[in-house]
Amino acid sequence: MGLRIALGSDHGGFRLKEFIKEHLTKQGHECTDCGTYDESSVDYPDYALKACQLVTEGKCDRAVLVCSTGIGISIAANKIRGIRCALCHDLLSARLTREHNNTNVLAMGAFIVGEKLAAAIVDEWIKTPFSNEERHANRINKVHDIENRYLK
């Protein structure tokens, strides 16, 4: 059974988001497209928020976000309580961010990665479980402590 995955992008990430949506749907994942829906100029924080809210509300298991570089949309996502978003442009980062950080949101830059690499990154991120090692769980708990202190 596939995952429920929210997708979000700004205008710079629109085409890659559409490709990723098709790729994930073919694999049996349930995708919820939070926009944007064309290449008209929009603000990435709006779409990061829409997709990440579905994760924090339990309506989606994870989210994939795309903007031109992945930087802005990942910054916006990480301002949301309960979100652990990683910007990944290679397979090792995609695997380790799941194993070590139990990330629930993946960000990529459409100007940085092409479709083939983006598909491989998403696949690696989806298939990799959290290691659940005590040292990694403790570190995630410390991140939650920071979140609770500063995200009011």
TrEMBL record:
Active site positions: C67 (proton acceptor), H100 (proton donor)
Protein name: Ribose 5-phosphate isomerase B
Lineage top rank: taxon: Bacteria
Pfam family, one: LacAB_rpiB
Gene Ontology biological-process entries: carbohydrate metabolic process
PANTHER family linked to this entry: DNA DAMAGE-REPAIR_TOLERATION PROTEIN DRT102, RIBOSE-5-PHOSPHATE ISOMERASE B
Signal peptide: none
Keywords annotated in UniProt: Isomerase
Family stated for the protein in its record: Belongs to the LacAB/RpiB family.
One of the record's GO molecular function terms: intramolecular oxidoreductase activity, interconverting aldoses and ketoses
